[in-house]
Write a structure and sequence with these properties.
Layout (H helix, E strand, L loop, with lengths): L2 H21 L13 H28 L4 H36 L10 H4 L4 H8 L9 H18 L9 E6 L5 E6 L5 E6 L4 E5 L11 E3 L7 E6 L5 E6 L5 E4 L4 E4 L20 E6 L6 E6 L4 E5 L8 E3 L11 E6 L5 E6 L4 E5 L8 E3 L11 E4 L5 E5 L4 E6 L8 E4 L10 E3 L5 E5 L9 E7 L5 E8 L3 E7 L4 E6 L3 E6 L8 H4 L9 H5 L21 H10 L27 H11 L7 H6 L2 H6 L22 H8 L2 H6 L1
Helix pairs in contact: 2-5
């Protein structure tokens, strides 16, 4: 044989060996076997029928037990038949494989076929078995799927299993009550507000395990945050605080609009442009993205348009049955946005048509105890049921089609806050609310009620403070809770929940790099340079020696003056010149009632010893001649002082 051909064959064999080691099978370059897919699928179906028939017979045998001995005796014959059928399959497969081998005259190419594809059975017998009474064509996999579907049906019938409470994360908002809580419609950002005037923004996708807010601001200065809510598009946030003007912020916290303040001296609140007293609550319209609603202590519920901040859109004025003004403490839109509901301080719940603001459409005058603030109103997703959380420690459910009395009532739910929430689960089968506790007197709870029976089916102990806000997001299937000790907790389930808190708990906490801390820029003022810096004193003794040489620091304080005075200072009655003059004036007993006599008293001394003016005029000044006193003047001088004053 040619040595060149031998070399090429050896190279080809080495290449085939490398390819076989990589791919897991050999036979490259040989003729491939063709398969009839229709025949393979038909054989697979019949094999499945045979297996299901065998499984069914085994189940029937186990159920019958000792009473069905005849069935047990017939079972070996059936097994013999199946064994014979399997042997025939092997023979036929052997014939077919031998035929194919004779056609190809080479080895089979590719991985070996599965056993169910290589078997060729007796078609008539298998078809006959499939048509026997009680025969079925279901496989074991389908039975397992049916069992799984039954378990899913049980979970659907039990709404408690849908509560996502297996895991939780805690966000530290501050130290005071978290009085407002909202999530955007996509569930990407959480916003919290509290009694500390702060509004904090949390981004689940941007946070790590440190769980830090990416922005904190005080949009309303020194006013407590009452309510926060994203619009239906998620691009703006409504901020309701303790002042009379609601604000709208964008997603990053910058101001978009501020409602105008009304004139507090106008009696009819419908004639003012805005609220005149503290706000209590606010919410967005569920269908119109530019419209939102607020309620205030001025006794009105007003709707606004984001595009027009100069005046409100419409005004609703709650009234008692006597026609007196009442204060709304909470407000809400229905799910379709056609109804406006308000809970008032006199215990009533009043509902208006959104387009007719004069008369109420529904009015329940004894919904809650008068004087207790209704803290929350929430419509169900189907729009038929209304839930109200009262300050009288109750949770009530109403059918707005029959609004005279509540459908169900739950009592004993302590409520110390005017913004305690209640909300429905995403499937409308559960109703959730929080309970309040006094300091160090137990734990605040999140309580779940079945909507149909209104029985308490579940509760979660949140923390050792009141549970104020609660929110069950339908898209994330996660529950957000705001507490009285400054915490915002997020409850989730890794299997049932989506995104949200699951995004941040898997990120490890980022460590600061030394290079970043060393390369920071510093601002140096001129007087901070070393040449202007005062020398640092290393010991007290040297400093005392320097102070001894300083005339100002070493000057001895002057002691207090005792006696009539010394060193130019006056004692006894003060050390100022004014006090000295006043003292001497008070001691002067000379009588200056007659000014002429007072002047002439010094005439003889001036003439005998001239000092000031007289020496300059000694040669030119004539001799002064004074008139003599008359008798009347002498008598006037002799009269007593009290007579002179009387005259």
């Amino acid at each position: 044989m040619d040595p060149n051909k031998l070399g090429e064959a050896s190279d080809r064999m080495s290449d085939d060996g490398e390819m076989a080691s990589v791919m897991g099978f050999s036979g490259f370059g040989k003729k491939a076997r063709t398969f009839d897919l229709d025949a393979i699928f038909e054989q697979t179906r019949r094999t499945a029928i045979e297996r299901s028939q065998r499984a069914l017979e085994e189940r029937q045998t186990e159920k019958e037990g000792e009473s069905s001995k005849s069935a047990e005796s017939s079972l070996p014959t059936q097994r013999d038949k199946s064994a014979a059928a399997s042997s025939r399959k092997q023979e036929s497969s052997g014939d077919s494989s031998s035929g194919s081998d004779s056609d190809s005259d080479s080895e089979l190419i590719g991985p070996p076929l599965p056993p169910q594809y290589t078997a060729q059975g007796d078609e008539d017998e298998l078809v006959r078995q499939s048509h026997q009474p009680g025969g079925t064509a279901h496989s074991d996999d389908e039975d397992d799927e049916e069992d799984a579907e039954e378990d899913d049906d049980e979970d659907d019938n039990n709404p408690v299993k849908k509560i996502p409470d297996t895991h939780e994360i805690t966000l530290q908002h501050g130290t005071k009550t978290v009085s407002a809580l909202c999530l955007d419609p996509s569930g990407a950002r959480l916003v919290t507000g509290g009694y500390d005037y702060d509004v904090r923004f949390w981004d689940f996708a941007g946070m790590d395990q440190a769980l830090q807010a990416f922005r904190s601001l005080q949009p309303c200065e020194c006013h407590q945050i009452k309510s926060l809510q994203y619009s239906i598009t998620g691009d703006v946030i409504l901020v309701v605080s303790g002042n009379a003007q609601a604000k709208v912020l964008d997603r990053d916290g910058f101001n978009v609009m501020e409602c105008v303040k009304g004139d507090q001296y106008i009696v009819d609140m419908a004639n003012t442009k805005g609220h005149t007293a503290m706000l209590n609550c606010g919410c967005w319209h569920p269908k119109t993205k530019e419209e939102f609603m607020t309620c205030s202590n001025d006794g009105t519920v007003r709707t606004w348009d984001v595009q027009s901040d100069k005046k409100h859109k419409s005004v609703f004025k709650p009234r008692s049955f006597q026609g007196k003004k009442v204060i709304p403490t909470c407000c809400a839109y229905s799910r379709d946005g056609k109804l406006v509901a308000a809970g008032c301080q006199d215990g009533t719940i009043q509902i208006w048509d959104r387009n007719l603001s004069v008369h109420t459409k529904f009015h329940c005058k004894q919904a809650h105890i008068p004087g207790s603030d209704t803290s929350c109103l929430s419509f169900s997703y189907d729009g038929v049921t209304l839930a109200s959380r009262g300050g009288d420690d109750t949770l009530k459910m109403w059918d707005i089609r029959n609004f005279r009395k509540p459908v169900n009532v739950a009592t004993g739910l302590t409520n110390y806050f005017t913004m305690t929430d209640c909300c429905f689960s995403p499937d409308d089968k559960l109703l959730v609310t929080g309970t309040s506790v006094k300091k160090e007197e137990g734990n605040g709870k999140l309580v779940f009620f079945d909507r149909a029976s209104f029985q308490k089916v579940y509760e979660i102990e949140v923390t050792n403070a009141s549970v104020v806000r609660c929110l069950w997001h339908p898209k994330l299937n996660q529950i957000m809770v705001g507490t009285g000790n400054g915490l915002a907790k997020v409850y989730y389930d890794p299997v049932k929940s989506h995104r949200g808190a699951k995004l941040c708990v898997v990120k490890s906490q980022r460590k600061e790099r030394q290079a970043e801390t060393l390369t920071q820029d510093y601002i140096i003022t001129p007087h901070a340079l070393p040449m202007f810096r005062e020398a640092r004193q290393r010991s007290t003794r040297k400093q005392l020696e320097k102070d001894r040489l300083d005339p100002k620091k070493s000057h001895k304080p002057e002691p207090p003056v005792s006696g009539p005075g010394r060193g130019g200072r006056v004692a006894a009655h003060g050390g100022t010149l004014s006090s000295f003059i006043v003292k001497n004036i008070a001691l002067d007993k000379t009588d200056d009632s007659n000014p002429r006599a007072a002047i002439l008293r010094h005439a003889k001394e001036a003439s005998d010893n001239p000092y000031w003016v007289a020496p300059a005029y000694t040669h030119t000044q004539p001799e002064p001649v004074f008139a003599e006193e008359s008798e009347e003047d002498e008598e006037a001088e002799k009269e007593p002082e009290w007579k002179k004053r009387k005259i």
